[in-house]
Design brief:
single chain, 471 residues, alpha+beta, BirA Bifunctional Protein, domain 2, Rossmann fold, 2 domains, seven-stranded mixed sheet, five-stranded mixed sheet, 15 helices, 23 strands, globular, binds glycyl-adenosine-5'-phosphate
């Protein structure tokens, strides 16, 4: 299923330099470094007023496609902390490792697979001490010698209860999936679901990444949007193939350019410990083609092991055929932060309008933090300001709307373009006489006069028309 990509640079990213996105995010209030007044904490990021809207909209769009519009998938919200045995049974305690390497002089640590030349190496080679010498690897920070690679477990631990001892150790979940597996029987029985059916969950996950970076691409605290689909074993392969185009289509429907998306199948030696087959949806980030979402055929690995270790019967009884079996699982696993980041990057464009640079975030209207801004042409006229607030307050009953009068109209338009607001409504002196206002479209920059009474209907109709269905 890997798409042919002979030249990795054949497809250009929307922005050459990630810094463009990082500075816009900070300047406009999408993303801030966590704990900034204390010097920050590596690989944790906070979402500002616009970022939290964007990310909530991404999660809502995913939930709509995966739960709301499907009959056979239901939702779940399980705890971040779970019985520690779950992570032993799932294989994460033993297997959830990255090959790590340390500089002998500055003591910095790196993931071996992030060095140039290691792209095609399997886990055995990545842990082979010969690899360092063979590839001539040295510390990127100070050129110092690198030690032998070793395994580094990515799970974060804490203590539950008042005693800090080994017996009280619990893990912060590194994936939301396990919360679904251990609730599989509860959900199946209470929602009266028959195979094939799915369980979806959005929630935080934590990984002690060795070399996080590229802004919110790789974080230590992040959110996943995962769906586990329970099927008859013999249908798992076809179900897996069926989810691939559906998941890619979801990103496209919300505005990501198809040429900056591709599939990449994992080689047998890079498969995660639970996976029989895995295909990533990759996006052309400014720093290369990288994983956006993973689709996995997990076989009976999870339910089989949980059944054995817990002693509970997790078999499914098929009344039609009289068979008992452990369902196989097809998983779609996306990152909410990575998806929001992708929509943000892909929406970015610079244009020249009447000799001036215009920066636009061309978000799909469903993802845009604000759907509409209401702007007065003359803020000194109280009747104009009052009408603006009336329109904005009515809009707010349905959607995110904002009033702004802190600059001249041209500047207010540019500001809304830069945060991706699809429509601006302007109230002027004529509005007071004829009751009409101007609606300006972000992309076409066309202006239309409509009745002030019709603004809410106009915006909600357009939002409805733009919303993708049946993904
Ligand atoms: N349950 C399967 C699983 O967790 P994964 O490929 O390790 O699979 C799935 O992770 C998705 O979670 C990734 O495609 C990515 O979008 C997101 N993700 C994983 N690690 C992340 C990190 N450190 N920071 C941000 N997102 C991450």
């Amino acid at each position: 299923m890997t798409d042919p990509q002979p030249d990795p640079n054949a497809v250009a990213p929307t922005v050459k330099d990630l810094e463009t996105i990082v500075s816009l995010s900070k300047r406009r209030g999408f993303v801030f470094p966590s704990s900034e007044i204390y010097g920050g904490i590596n690989a944790v990021w906070d979402y500002g007023p616009l970022g939290v809207e964007l990310k909530n909209n991404v999660k809502r769009a995913w939930w709509r496609a995966m739960v709301q519009e499907r009959d056979e998938i239901v939702g779940l919200d399980s705890g971040i902390l779970m019985h520690p045995q779950i992570w032993v049974t799932s294989g994460h305690v033993a297997e959830f490792n990255d090959p790590m390497i340390e500089c002998a002089t500055c003591k910095r640590r790196y993931r071996v697979d992030e060095f140039a030349g290691t792209e095609d190496l399997g886990p055995k080679d990545l842990l082979d001490p010969e690899t360092v010498a063979r590839l001539g690897l040295v510390c990127p920070n100070d050129g110092g010698p690198l030690g032998a690679p070793r395994r580094f477990n990515l799970m974060l631990k804490t203590f539950l209860g008042p005693v800090e001892e080994e017996a009280a150790v619990v893990y912060l979940r590194p994936e939301t999936a396990q919360g679904i597996y251990v609730n599989y029987r509860n959900v199946r029985d209470t929602a009266r679901k028959k195979v094939p059916f799915g369980i979806a969950q959005i929630g935080k996950a934590f990984r002690n990444e060795i070399s996080p970076g590229n802004f919110v691409f790789r974080m230590r605290e992040f959110e996943q949007m995962e769906m586990q689909y329970f099927v008859r074993p013999e249908t798992a392969a076809d179900t897996f193939e069926g989810w691939l185009p559906r998941r890619k289509a979801w990103y496209e429907a919300y505005g990501v350019a198809p040429e900056r998306l591709r599939f990449r199948e994992h080689r047998p030696d890079e498969l995660a410990h639970y996976a029989k087959k895995a295909v990533d949806v990759e996006y052309r980030f400014p720093f290369g083609w990288k994983e956006l979402e993973g689709i996995h055929n997990r076989g009976d690995w999870d339910l089989g092991r949980h059944s054995k270790e817990s002693g509970e019967n997790l078999e499914y009884f098929d009344q039609a055929t009289g068979e008992h079996f452990i369902p196989w699982i097809v998983e779609t696993s996306a990152g909410a932060d990575r998806a929001a980041f992708t929509f943000l990057i892909d929406a970015y464009r610079e244009e020249e309008v009447r000799g001036e640079k215009r920066v636009v975030l061309g978000f799909h209207p469903d993802l845009a933090p604000y759907k509409v801004a209401v702007l007065p042409l003359l803020k000194k006229r109280p009747e104009i300001v009052e009408l603006c607030h009336r329109i904005k307050d009515d809009l707010k009953r349905h959607t995110m709307a904002v009033y702004d009068d802190t600059a001249a109209i041209g500047k207010l338009y540019r500001r809304q373009d830069e945060i991706g607001t699809p429509w601006c409504v302007t109230v002027d002196v004529d509005s007071l006489d004829d009751g009409n206002v101007t609606v300006r479209d972000r992309d076409a920059m066309m202006q239309e006069r409509i009745s002030a009474d019709q603004v809410t209907r106009y915006i909600t109709d357009r939002l409805d028309a733009a919303r993708p269905h049946g993904l």
